[in-house]
Input
Amino acid sequence: MDDRIETTAEAAEAEALPRMYEVHADPGDCADPDCMPDRMKAPVDTKSPSQWAYERLILYIRNFEQQLDGEHEVAMGFAGAEAGVLRIEGMGYFEPDIITFYGRDANGVRTQLIQHVSQLNVMLRALPKPSEDAPANRIGFRLAADLEET
Output
């Protein structure tokens, strides 16, 4: 028996299958639920909050990267914190409720942010790639490919 107390809204949300709905000005952007990997279409109660947050963030990052030109990379701004902007180099989760972001800050210093899923509040940003000679790093596509393989 689960002794956890939930609001009516939380209980209804927990029973629902995951849905993704978006509308974009550019019809070429992914607004179709078919963009979700099959493993994300599982019932909500089969995964921890951290795994759900991790997988959904990957989709948002990948979709954001699809809109970037070859001169920009995705970075993440953290609202309400002094963490600033993090150029994303990796992401992970620790069940049941922790999300971890790895990368570099604006000064190139290695950075790791560990955040509880209830505090998750991020903004995706397009930053110029650090080296003109190197191709843009596309972390979202690598993370999404990992979702498809596992």
